[in-house]
Amino acid sequence: MLARELGYASPRRMLGEMTPTELGEWLAEYSISPWGEWRDDLRAAQITAMIANVNRDAKRKPQPFQPRDFMYDHVMEERDAAKRSALLSAQIKSALKGRTVKRGKK
């Protein structure tokens, strides 16, 4: 996902061109401010839930709609995210080939 979002043809190419420090910076940026299709879908689901709640009959549907009610197969998405994370970790380890990332002191 990160490779696609950064415009790389493949994760392997991205990892081949990026230093471990740069990769760490991008992963930190994503953890602070996520982007991508999943995030876009979440924003659309939030808006859809708001519109549905404004127009719902509280007597017929006492519980308000949640964004997850409008996410496409959100349970599967969470499982896939864990698999993608594990795959990305394996690709990073493979690209680093035993090298360690030295962190600077702050």
TL;DR of this structure?
The protein has 106 residues and is mainly alpha-helical.
What's the helix count?
5
Q: What distance separates the N and C termini?
A: 30 Å
Number of strands: 0
Q: Taking all residues together, what is the mean pLDDT?
A: 82
- Shape type: elongated
Low-confidence stretches: none
Structural class: mainly alpha
* Order of helical and strand elements: HHHHH
What proportion of the residues form beta strands (DSSP E)? Answer: under 5%
Q: Tell me the major beta sheet.
A: none
Radius of gyration: 19 Å
Total discrete domains: 1
Report the oligomer. Answer: single chain
Q: What portion of residues is helical?
A: 55-70%
Give a description of the structure.
The chain is mainly α and 106 residues long. The protein has one domain. Helix 2 packs across helix 5. The longest helix has 23 residues. The radius of gyration is 19 Å and the shape is elongated. The model has no long low-confidence stretch (mean pLDDT 82).
Question: How is this fold's topology laid out?
Answer:
Elements: H1 2-5, H2 11-17, H3 20-32, H4 37-55, H5 74-96
Task: Quickly list its features.
single chain; 106 residues; mainly alpha; 62% helix
